[in-house]
Write a structure and sequence with these properties.
The complex is a heterodimer of chains A (238) and B (472). With 238 residues, chain A is α/β, with parallel strands linked by helices. Chain A has 8 helices and 12 strands. In chain A, the strands form 3 sheets. Chain A has a 6-stranded parallel sheet with strand order 1-12-7-4-2-3, sandwiched between helices. In chain A, strand 5 and strand 6 form a beta hairpin. With 472 residues, chain B is α/β, with parallel strands linked by helices. Among the domains of chain B are: 252 residues, Rossmann fold, CATH 3.40.50; 72 residues, no CATH class. Helix content of chain B is 49%, strand content 11%. Chain B has 21 helices and 12 strands. A 6-stranded parallel sheet of chain B has the order 1-10-7-4-2-3, with helices on both faces. In chain B, a hairpin with a 4-residue loop joins strand 5 and strand 6. The longest helix of chain B has 23 residues. Chain B is globular and about 85 Å long. Classes of the chains: A alpha/beta (238), B alpha/beta (472). At the A-B interface, helix 1, helix 2, helix 7, helix 8 and strand 9 of A face helix 2, helix 3, helix 4, strand 1 and helix 5 of B. Strand 9 of chain A pairs antiparallel with strand 9 of chain B, so a sheet runs across the interface.
Chain lengths: 238, 472
């Protein structure tokens, strides 16, 4: 193999650090810093959702607060119809299936494709790229930053939330967490083990750039619009 | 206009930049806005200082046990199906990348913004081997089309106006485009989308690498980072060895301060956490993942006065507040990393004496240290670099003699008062509009690049006594 041998590389690093140190790795940081600095009463689900929707709007996303899943789907269909979109790609996901989104979309005249392995990968990506809207669920949502957290899994192509110009996400109430700190242990579990997600993405608002004259522009490579449909109470659909 | 020209000295490059009015205007607007956004973001963050201290403690722990953490990272990455490479310098790194590309028959590479690949000049090496690298960050793409170098760590094309970008795109893409940022951005989206879908290899940097899980964290706003690391069948990530952090908890600390320090965001738009290769049944993502860990002078700084430079998370905050950077911009530094931390990093990359000229390109005002989310003591390091330059006799005999005289005067009160008196009496022929712009040889070397304020008719010590008497 080209380059420097691992053992040799690490030996040089060790030598450069200098004489041995008293602390074990991690000891200093995790020993003293773990004490919680502020203990606040944990916010209710409703407060978390409020906070999430405010933060989402601050980063240019659009949130819809429904009374329950059924109203969420109704509002979603109304938005889709008004937008004049024609082609949708959608994840294979239990929540989306339970919401009956595929039939709801075809019912209002959209051409809808549930991503799957049936067609070769190159065509798959081209098809996702050609869609007007990509529809996903979320694994978590972070209230303090307005971020959506999506984990890669079979049937849940990463590119559905990225290539189409519009991303629509459905947020079930149990997925909301308050902060990045609370998210961290949950992510640890998602990544763990041989079946852990190979890719997790935190999405905070639409794709943006300010590379020309520091002027904010949305939708440079990823979606120009991010719509999130959320509701507070877990309710059976029927 | 703002090409990097290494055959000229910093002084020459800087005075060129000072005459470039559009550049100074662009810099003024951009750095001003960056500063306001950062201050606003930290102002609204409870426990910000605690967070900075926590980040420092994590970095200190990492550097103290760097070999352990790097070993753990490599094991974790391999456990998830990745391959790890080690390179002691840029030459080795390029050899590894080219060999891999050749083996896989790669013709077409897409890249997401990576300063470490700029550092080792990877694009030039790829082109030399007949491989086409395409930068996909909008700013990086602009400077790639213009054959320039980045002028800011996080906003590479900060020195260009929309008119210049429109002109550039029109010429390179062979169609007239208006100086409208929306249109220019849409053009980039369309052009680069095809590149993403065709590429055989994606090359990215790494913002943070988590030793415990083998996760590579990549932070972007445009989404190009996600495409580069998901669409091509092969992903190569290149990181400086200091980018390793212990755990996911630690990542959250750095994500919070990086986004705020760089662009004033609470969170960057996309944070990708890449843990190994695509799993069975997943519909996209690379089937092959390579991580290249690069030293390139970094380990030299592990002990000694520049150690804290390895805390740097490349947020660019110190550039925006630096009175020198704000006037001359990134290209005047003539190095990959501009600005205050850039001077120190240049010394790291080039070895002893590598940035002796640049060490003087600072007012030592301390704004960089204050802005740095890790509170890196940059002014101290710049002083140390200057001290080294003097110690190595890289300073002329004349300058040393002049400072010897200065030291003698400053340490003897009576001599100091006498010198002040002489100065006040004889300075008048040199004062024009309240400034001394030119002095006779040998002092003309000093006034060549700076104006000197004339000595006040009444010395400070005399005024101070007056103020005291009035009880002010």
């Amino acid at each position: 193999m080209l380059g420097t041998d691992e053992v040799e590389f690490l030996r040089r690093v060790r030598a450069a650090i200098g004489p041995g140190t008293a602390t074990r790795a991690g000891q200093k940081v995790h020993g003293q810093e773990k004490s919680p600095s502020r203990v606040a009463a944990s916010p209710s689900r409703s407060q978390l959702l409020d906070k999430f929707l405010i933060e989402l709007s601050l980063v240019g996303g659009k949130g819809y607060r429904a009374s329950g899943p059924r109203q969420g789907v109704e509002r979603f269909c109304a938005v889709m119809q008004a937008s004049g979109m024609k082609r949708a790609v959608i994840w294979q996901h239990p929540l989306l299936a339970e919401l009956g989104l595929y039939s709801a979309l075809t019912g209002i005249g959209l051409e809808c494709w549930e991503v799957s392995e049936e067609i070769p990968e190159e065509d798959r990506m081209a098809r996702i790229s050609a869609a007007d809207v990509g529809i996903t669920a979320v694994d978590y949502a972070v209230a303090e930053t307005g971020s959506l957290v999506l984990c890669s899994r079979p049937g849940r192509a990463r590119m559905v939330s990225l290539l189409p110009p519009v991303h629509v996400a459905f947020l079930a109430p149990h997925s909301l967490v308050s902060s990045l700190e609370t998210l961290s242990p949950l992510l640890g579990k998602e990544l763990d083990g041989p079946c852990g997600a190979s890719n997790v993405v935190l999405i905070t608002g639409p794709s943006r750039t300010a590379d020309i004259e520091l002027s904010l522009t949305q939708g440079v490579h990823g979606p120009k619009e991010v719509h999130v449909f959320a509701w507070e109470e877990e309710m059976p659909l029927l | 206009m703002s090409q990097v020209a290494l055959d000229r000295s910093f002084e020459e490059r800087a005075s060129g930049a000072l005459k470039d009015l559009p550049l100074r205007q662009a810099l003024g607007i951009a750095t001003e806005r960056f500063m306001a956004q950062r201050m606003n973001a930290f102002h609204n963050l409870p426990g910000a200082e605690e967070l900075r201290q926590r980040a420092r403690a994590i970095k200190e722990d990492v550097l103290t046990h760097l070999d352990d953490y790097l070993g753990q990272l490599a094991d974790s990455v391999r456990k998830r199906g990745g391959v790890v490479h080690w390179a002691k310098d840029g030459a080795e790194a390029k050899e590894i990348v080219l060999a891999l590309a050749k083996e896989r028959g790669v013709k077409h590479v897409v890249k997401s913004k990576s300063m470490v690949t700029e550092e080792i000049e990877l694009n030039e090496a790829l082109e030399g081997a007949g491989i086409r690298p395409v930068e996909t960050d909008l700013g990086e793409w602009i400077i790639q089309l213009a054959h320039e170098k980045p002028s800011h760590i996080i906003a590479p094309a900060i020195h260009k106006t929309r008119h210049q970008v429109a002109e550039l795109f029109s010429e390179r893409l062979n169609k007239p485009l208006p100086a409208d940022i929306e249109v220019l951005t849409a053009t980039a989206r369309e052009q680069l989308r095809q590149e993403f879908l065709q590429a055989d290899m994606g090359i990215s940097g790494v913002n943070f690498a988590i030793a415990e899980t083998g996760t590579l964290a990549l932070v972007t706003n445009e989404g190009n980072g996600r495409m580069v690391t998901s669409l091509p069948p092969l992903h190569l990530a290149i990181m400086g060895l200091e980018k390793v952090i212990p755990t996911l908890d630690d990542l959250m600390v750095f994500l919070k301060i990086l986004a705020r320090s760089a662009t004033g965001q609470k969170a960057s738009t996309y944070v990708s956490l890449i843990t190994g290769v695509r799993r069975e049944g997943e519909l996209d993502g690379p089937k092959e993942l390579h991580l290249l860990i690069l030293d390139n002078g970094r380990s030299r700084f592990l002990s000694g006065p520049y150690r804290e430079a390895l805390y740097c998370i490349r947020c660019g905050a110190c550039l925006n507040v630096c009175p020198v950077y704000r006037q001359v911009g990134g290209h005047a530094y003539g190095s990959t990393y501009p600005g205050p931390i850039g001077i120190v990093l240049t010394a790291m990359l080039q070895g002893p004496g590598g940035s002796k000229e640049l060490a003087a390109a600072s007012s030592l005002c301390g704004a960089c240290e204050e802005a740095c989310p890790l509170e890196i003591n940059i002014p101290h390091m710049l002083l140390e670099l200057r001290r080294e330059a003097v110690g190595e006799r890289k300073v002329s005999a004349g300058e040393r003699a002049a400072f010897g005289v200065m030291a003698a005067i400053l340490s003897r009160p009576r001599l100091y008062r006498l010198a002040g008196l002489v100065g006040r009496l004889f300075q008048w022929p040199f004062v024009t509009s309240g400034r001394i712009g030119r002095l006779p040889f040998p002092l003309s070397r000093w006034t060549l690049n700076r104006d000197f304020p004339p000595l006040s008719p009444k010395p400070f010590s005399a005024r101070w006594q007056g103020l005291n008497r009035n009880g002010a």
